[in-house]
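User: I'll paste a sequence; please echo it back and then give the predicted structure.

Assistant: Echoing your sequence first, then the prediction.
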Amino acid sequence: SNPQITCHSRVICDSTRRMTFLHMFRFAKGVVGSVSYLVYGYCIASLFLKRCACLYRCEGESMQPAINDGQNGDVLLVEFITVASIRLAKGNVIVLCDPRNPNMDICKRIVAMPSDEIDSHVINMPPGHVWVEGDNKATSCDSRHFGPVPYGLIKGRVLFKVWPVVQRVT
């Protein structure tokens, strides 16, 4: 009777090992699947943030009251597709590289496209340039100071103010 118990005990032990190995295999398969989803998600998010849209923080008074009407700055959703397809229009709020300091981005509104009149006089803008100004003209350093801005400096068009209150920027 004793040898049968021992034999029976070994069989149970072997099946337990098989089940443990099977569980470990399923667990490993699940981990690999989850990691692959994370990698795919990271790649898609990275592509989206580089080619489609991104969040920018806007500080300063030059775009008040539309943007940054508080003290802490606003977070803006900026899309890049409009700029890439050259579909910008007069009145769009944009983020662009500061012509005076290439390491800094600024937020301004397109006031005129080529051949538009500005303050009832015609500004001779080169093709592929826009005239930008801040909404708060008293504190804004804009095209009135540095002239027309080439399309190449424009990074994106502001769609929404997402913090502190979600609001469409027009």
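Residues 1-15 have pLDDT under 50 and may be disordered. The first strand starts at residue 53 and ends at 58.
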